[in-house]
Each structure stands twice: as structure tokens, then as C-alpha cells.
């Protein structure tokens, strides 16, 4: 297929009713940006002011705490959409191991920007950064979660195709799921074991329509009650038309580390990096 034919295919996909994969990705990126801008800037400012995040104990403007809760709630839409798109990518990619390598590569590239942006939540201070301590091993970025989740469902898919008694298939599948969740716990990835569990659930129920995304959001509730906002993604995912849309694969990969760096630099200029 030449470049003209590829453009024609993309144009036809863009005209299809419903939401394409690229549109869902844009929604997730906007949600993620709102979440991270709130965490890197607003929450830094709240900490800088010495305010409590507990509304009953806060000595500053309670409106800031309420705004923080609302914006972080909006940010909960991103991860379940990325899970949905991860499983869709798994289903359609020709080289699953190359897909996994790409996630691991960008997990490594994104870790320092991620730690600069959010490390203050886990004790990273400006003095540490000036000493060259720019990696925090207490919490790893979401690319690691997606990579571990993808690795797990690759194992599950291979196990499912083995010519073995059903009982052994279930046993090996359980062990693979346990391995993936344990790896997420060991690496201290974003969303941890629950994140990998949610990816497994989406994979197992990928052919069950909206039940898949609903159960995925239900699994995410195990991490925090704030994940209840994730159920809002049921509507946009229900409009998915099965088309790729615009090719934004590397746009997202680049956007993730870059937006953390930009937000951290803004915080630095504002003087709220302590």
C-alpha cells in the first residue's frame, strides 16, 4: 500500500461514525494532562502553603481542596481508556514482543520526568535533585504498569492456546496473572497490582462489549474509591467504531515525558518546588 492509499484509508476511518482509537487516545491524554497538571502544580501549591488536603482540617481556602478533588476525579478517565486501547493494540499488532519492548523503552525514558513531576509526593526534594538524585524508586510511571500488564496478557494468550486439560490451563493462567501482579508490586508501578488486574480483566472480557470496560473500572475501585469516576469512560468507549483514526502512537509516547518536564519547569519558575 503506497502513501496515497494509506491517506485514503485514514480519511475513510475519520469519516466513520462513532469514536476512533485516536479520538479515545486524545480524550485520555486530555484527562491525563488535567490530572498531572493538578498534581504537579495545584497540589504542590497546596503543600507549599502548608495546607491540609483534609477539608475538615484545612486552614486555607477550601475551594482549592474541592477544585483538586474535582480535577483529580476528571483525571481518573485516562487509565481505563489506555487499558482498553492497550488490549485493542494487543489484538491487532503483528509483533506483540516489539509492542512490549516499545512500552519498556518509553517507561525508562519517562521515569526521570515522572519523578521530577510527582516525586515530591514521595519525599523527593529540590535539594535531592540538585545533588543529582533525580530517580525515585518508590513509585514508577504508568508505562511500567502497561508493560507488565501487556507481558501478562501475552503469557495468558499463549497459555490459552496450549493443548492441555482445561484444569491445567486455568492453573497456569492463574499463576501467570499472579506473576504479573507480583511484578507490578515489586516494581512499585503506578496503580500497582490493581492496575495489572484491571488489564487482565479487560483482556478476559474484551469480547463482552461494555461488560469489559465496566468490570475493568470495577477492578480499579480496589485501589481507591476515587476511581468511581472511571465509570464515566463507559460512554466514550461504547462509541468506539473499531477504527484506528489518526496515527498518534508516537505522539502519545513523546507527550508523556515531555508534559511532565514542562509542568515541573512551570512549578520551578513559580517557586513552588521545595
List the helices and strands and how they pair.
Elements: H1 3-15, H2 21-48, H3 62-75, H4 78-92, H5 96-118, H6 126-130, H7 142-160, H8 166-187, H9 192-204, H10 210-220, H11 234-238, H12 249-270
Helix pairs in contact: 2-3, 2-4, 2-12, 4-9, 5-7, 5-12, 7-8, 7-9, 8-9, 9-10
Model description:
The chain has one domain (18-270). By secondary structure, the protein is mainly α. The longest helix has 28 residues, at 21-48. The protein has twelve helices and no strands. The chain is globular. The protein has helices spanning 3-15, 21-48, 62-75, 78-92, 96-118, 126-130, 142-160, 166-187, 192-204, 210-220, 234-238, 249-270. The chain is 69% helix and 0% strand.
Low-confidence stretches: 1-14
Order of SSEs = HHHHHHHHHHHH
Q: Cα-atom Rg, whole angstroms?
A: 20 Å
Q: Give me the secondary-structure category.
A: mainly alpha
What is the count of β-strands? 0
Note the main attributes of this structure.
274 residues; mainly alpha; disordered N terminus
In short:
The protein has 274 residues and is mainly α.
